Structure formats: C-alpha cells, structure tokens
Input
Amino acid sequence: MLRDSYAYAKNGVFENKNKWLMLIIATILLELPLMGYLMKVFRAEKPAPEVQDWGTLFIDGIKWLIVCIIYFIPLLIVYAILIAIVGGAALTGDSDAMMGAMAGAGLLGLIALVLYIITALLLPIAAVRFARTGSIGEALQFKAVIAQIGRIGWVSYIIALIIAAIVIAIPVAIIEAILMALTIGLAMIAPALSLIVVLLTAIIFLALMPLISVFMARYITQIYDSTG
Output
C-alpha cells in the first residue's frame, strides 16, 4: 500500500507540474478545494484525477469541513470546560481553588486526549464513506464507521495508520531540522537572511501539502478497500 500510494502521488502529482500547481493553489484557498479534490481520491479514481470543476471541489470541501467540525464537537466541549474551570479559578485568586482546577484540568486533558485519538481513528473511514455516497449523514453513521474498521481489523488498521504517520514524519522532521538549523545560523550572522529561510520554509511545506495529502488519501482508500 505504501508503494502504491507513493507511485500514485509521484506519477499523478509530482511529475505533473500543472496539477501540482493547481493543488498548491487549492491549498492556499483555505484548503477547501484540496479537501474536495481528496474526495475524488477516496472514490478510488486512478490515476490521480485532474483538478477541475472548482465549484464542486469547494462544495465538497465545505461539506467535509462540516463533517470534521461535527466529529470534533465533543473535544471542543471538553476544551471549553477546561478553559472555563482554569480561568474561573484564576479569577478567584484562591490557591486551593487553583489546585483543584489544575487537578480537574489534568483529568479533562486525559479525556481530551482519548477523544482526539478516537476522532483521529474514525475520521479517515468517515471521509471515504462521505466521498463515495456524497452524504454527510453517511459520514456521521458512527456505527457503520466502527463496523467498517472492525472488518478491516482494529489492530491492522491502527498499525497501518502508525506506519504511514512514521513514513511521513521522518522526511518532514529532517526537512524541518535542516531549515531550523539554517534559520538559527543565519539569525546569528544576518537576521534579515533568516527571514528568507522562514519564507522558504513556508513555501516548501505549502508545496509538500498536496503531495502528502494525496499520498495519505490514496493510502486510506486502500485500507478501506482491503476488506474486499
């Protein structure tokens, strides 16, 4: 699956400069057209589809954004409660209240972490369901999403996602380390030049975003279809 996803992104995007440029523009436009484009990838279109019908890409991107927001609502509620508790205790100026608030914040932080992991596991499968049905309701069928992961196999599914995360994280971390070293080095010599490196960093990651996104979308599509 990694080889196929790499070839898919390489042949469909990296070696197609016009399509790559269009996807970079799609990323600049709040990523909404890019999100819409990934829905085509989730539909198992091969090779990588052309970047066209921008109106449809925007609409699909907005719909998918709505789905993501709904999935993250529980997490947002926990964060809101956490901020309210800590902020309220800070306003009282009472040390005991602050200590109690910090203990509560720790528990809420743990709950938030669990909710984030659950959301991160469910969203990829929900994305494919949405892409193939065009229905927000289908993406929110949590039982169906969980059932699909069950057919894939929870252990296999989690391991597959971890492997992909590692494969992406390693080169990204190397690039970040090199650019950070350049920024720090130039900041000591000529601060103005360090700003150029910061700009270059933004451009590099803007260019990488479509490649990484298409790679992951293709990879998730194969995971989804692995059940036959």
